Structures are given as C-alpha cells and as structure tokens.
Fold these 2 entries.
Entry 1:
Amino acid sequence: MPSLILITGATSGFGEAMARRFAADRWRVIITGRRTERLEALRTELDGLHGTGAVHALRFDVRDRAAAEHAIASLPEEWRPIDVLVNNAGLAAGFAPIQDGDPDDHDRMIDTNVKGLLHVSRAVIPGMVARKRGHIINIGSMAGKEVYPNGNVYCATKHAVDALTKGMRQDLLPYGIKVTQIAPGLAETEFSIVRFHGDEARAKKVYEGIEPLTGEDVANLVHFAASLPPHVCINDLTVSPTAQATSTLVRRDLQP
C-alpha cells in the first residue's frame, strides 16, 4: 500500500503543490484547509487523475483545536496510520513596525503558525508514537533564522517553528520518528497577497527582478525528504532563490 501523508493548508501555494506531487507518486493524501470549494475541487481533480480513493479531504481551521482534534479523530480506519505529517498551514499578516502593528494580525499569525501547528501535531503524533514510526515535516521560513524590519511577529512565529522542530526531534527520537524543517526564502504564492491584505500590486513588487521559488520547488524538496531511506533524516533545510542571500539581501537583476 502506498504511504499516507497529511498536508495542512492544502488549498493553495506550497500545500496544493505538495498534494499534487505526492498524489502523482501514488501516495494516499489527506488534504486539509478552510475553504470548502477549493478543498473539494482539489480532491475531485486528484481523484480523477490518480484513481478514486487516492485523496481524503478534511475541512477545518488549524487555529481551532477542537475542530482539528475532531477532524483527525473522525478519519476512517484506513486513513488513520499517517506516515508523514506536513505542517504547512501558515501565513504572514501585515508588515509594520511593532508599535504600529494590528493586534488582530498578531493573533492570526500566532494562532495559525504556532498554535495551529501544535494542535494538528498533538492530534497526529500519538499514533506515530504507538507505531514507532513516522515523519513530521514543518514548513518554516528564512524568517525563522533571522529577523528583518517590520517582520517582528511573523519572524517570532517562525522562530517558534524552528524551536519546536528541534524540540520534537529530541522528544520523538526514542520512537524512531523523523522530524524535519524546511525553511524557504522568497517564494511566489499567495503569501504576499495575504500579508498585504489583498493588495496585489504591492505583493507583486516583492518578486520584481528575481526568479522566486515556486510551490513546486518546495513540494519537490518535501517529497525528497519524505522519500529518503528510514535511517536518513534531513533535520533542517533552508532554501532560497539564487538571487537571495538573506531576508534583506536580494539581487534584483538576475531574472532571465
């Protein structure tokens, strides 16, 4: 039987690309997200391409602990032995100095990027512990390795992902469970549109003059990490466009 993966935040960006990549490789895929129409459209599409029953959809918001617990507990028996969990759901909201930031944006980032990761992990990990196998892949960010102006709370949440990944790796070592962080730099998805509250023109400027990462680039790295032999674990992987050295040092004249 093909391996079984659960991907949070699968209705766009990295998560959607991951769902396509793993389904194409004949993995069984559990996709989660908040947007029912997108979730069902993706499930239907991938089932049509790769066979009925290849994809199972769970609609819930990772910020809601009770909903996350209920959704994962409600999985049919054949969908419960999750081999790989990808904690992908995350976002940036706002781009302002700390003194001017919107507290609602702060809450949204903390609740999604940190607490959401914890809610889903806590619901999935006990099964991995019982089976003494599994792999958790947390999608971090270059922002979890350094801090940049106006990134304050977003950077803090991704630093938390970095720390949680290291903590998980240590706590789950006795059970043979792999834990990996993949930390992308500039990637053109819906990320900047969400950060700038729908301002597409402002979001587009983030990627001007460079060839950014794509969702497919990150999906391929996740697939590679998840497909390694049982004795090999990538603990931490930072990836960026060739044009980016740090969060603030970007050369904008390399685009083909």
Note: Residues 4-239 form a domain with the Rossmann fold fold (CATH 3.40.50.720).
Entry 2:
Amino acid sequence: MDPRIKNNNRRFMDEERLPEKIYIWDETMRGGEQSPGVIFDEKDKVELAKLMDEMGVAVIDAGFPMMSEGEREAIKALVELDLDAEVGATVRCEKEDIDTALELGVDDLYMFSTTSKFHLHYKHGMTEEECREKVIEAVDYAKDRGVKFDFISEDTTRSDIDFVKDLFNEIRDRGARRLIICDTASSITPEAMYSFTAELIDQIGGKWGVHCHNDFGLAVANTVSAVQAGVEYPTLTVNSLGDSSGNPAMEEVIMIAEKLMGIDTGIDTTYLYELCKMVERKSGLYLSPQKPICGFNSYRHESDVHVSGVLAHTGSYEPIDPEEVGRQREFVLGKHSGPALVKNLLESKDISLSDEEIEKVLKRIEEEKTFDRQWKIDEFLDTVEDYNQEMLGFPEDRFWNIVDEEREK
C-alpha cells in the first residue's frame, strides 16, 4: 500500500476474500468497439494488443468472429502475434461460432449465453431449461475439441440465482476455467454485487470474472466490489468504451486495486496514459478533461489552496504520483490562482514583486480569462455536436440512398 495513502480500506475488507493478485482482462477490442461510431481495424488492434501485452495485460478478447470477415482477419492477426497475454475470442453457444473461432487458430473461447428469464423470453423465446440444454451441448462440443473455454452468463444480476448456481456448477464440472458474472443492464448496486458474487463463489468455487456496464455510473464500483468478494478476472475497457454508457475503465480499476486495495495487477502503470491516448485517437471518442487518470485536467492545479498544498507536499492533494501513470504535474494560471503560484513562477526567474503588484497580476489574469469566454465555449460545443452527429453514427438519408441504389442494380 502506498504510504502516501493513509486509509482504513484494508481494515474494512475481508482479507480472506481479497485476492492477492488480479488479472486484467481487456474488452476494448470487442465490447469497447460496440461504442456507436467506433471502429478498430486490423492495424489498430495489432498496435493496441502489442502495447497491452508490453504493459502486462493478462487476457485480450480479440473480438467476435461472427461479426464480419474483417473481424475474423483481425482476430487471426492477433492470435498470430504470439503474445504473452492470452488472446481469445467471444462466441455464442453455437457450434458454428466455435468452429469459426477454431479455424482462426483461437485456443481460448469466451462462450456466452443469457441466463435471465427477461432476456430468454424477449430475445430468444426460450425457457431456462431450453437455455441449459443449449449451453451444455455447446460446452460439451467445445470440450470435445480440446479447446480451453470460459462461460459468460449474460444478465446474471437479473437472473434467478438458483438457476445460475445450477448452470454454473454443471459448466464448471465440464471443465470451464472461469465463470463470468455480468451486470448487463446495470441493475445492481456495489453492496448487492459484493453479496451476490460472494454467494456464487462460496457455493461453486473455481476462478471468477466480472463484466459490468455503466448506465448508472457504477461499473467501476461494481467491479471493485466483485474483486473484494474474490473475483480475480475483471473485464475492462480502456477509457470506459462500450455500448451505451460503456464498461468499467481499465485505468481506473487498475489504480484503485494498486493504490487503494494493495492488490497486484501485474500492470506497468507508467504505460496507462500512452494507452488511453492511443485508444482516444483510434476510437475517435475524446476524453473529458476531468476523466480520472488520463483526462487533460488530471494533475493540473489552479486553485491557490491546492497549489499551496501540492507545493508543500504533493501528497496533500495527489493520491497518485503523476509519473506513476505516465503523466506530469502542471500548475495552471486562472481565476482561482493565488500568490503561491505567482511567487513560485517569479522565483524560477529570480524576479520579485511586491504583494500589491502580485495582486494586480492576478487581477489581470482573471480579466483576460473571463473576457469573451462564453462565445468560445458555445463555438466549441457546436463543433462537438457536429462531430458527434457525423462520426458517431450514420446518416439515415444516406442509408436510404444506399437501399435505393442496391434495389436499382
């Protein structure tokens, strides 16, 4: 535990449940690419996978083979990189999916099926028993082909827990390496996630993963709660990419585990900023300046109270040393600046001003920062809205043009 963080976290955690190490499972190139408008081509995925492997990511989900020919080519390229990380593919509990993945050289299958009555009824018109039969048939099919497989229970947190227990037990007995709990519809709170996960682990045993969604902003918190309950394989996306409001941010979960929980992640965290910026550029989803770890304003201080504190000791307001995540500290002049920063800057140039002169400098800074500010904000936000409309979707009028063109052929 970092000595700069004096807290009681471990005191209030069940040490017997807490894993000594967690294994970072990346979903950026599969689940993250489901973000509307995001496309990672083969070159993008290769670059991302190489960097993730270098920094110590344990598992990389290369994609969903049934998506397209381009997806299959990218998966094959990642498998052929022969990385230290485990590189697998997500498949439905369908023989065709399994065979397609195996043809690409995939050795690790992440098999999934929904288990909630809600999804079974509305998405598939199936009963729980029909689901069980289909899943077990697919699991046996994969096992007979000698492939390593995990089972992902979609919408687990809205499923009947007794049905899930029975199904997980059967799948574990058939050789599944890991069982993955999913909060697909963001339907659980962190406290409930802890108890739900702990009950499954205690009654079934084995290795566990968790996959959360962020519709209520709880994806990171729910993931951390599952880890506290004993989960060793959190599935994460860089920059919180994913459909709708996304999935838990890899960079946040890593730093929470390392700094607040004293858990080894196997990650060289000095690569985190580089990875986040690479994903930002390749995905086209720009980051909020306030985004933890990799946002523009992380480690930037304007308020005189914060500047004074950080100048006295960085641990006053920084629980993470910026260099730990590949960042640098910055002091920013603005409306909330005070004498501490101005004096610090003056000393760096061996210049001295009176207190009255310093106050005049600060006044002028505030005036210049305030002047014409609103129109600049409005102009920027209008540009952002135009970008969102163009890049994060596809024009419906163009869709109908394509339909008409195809009909005329």
Note: The radius of gyration is 25 Å.
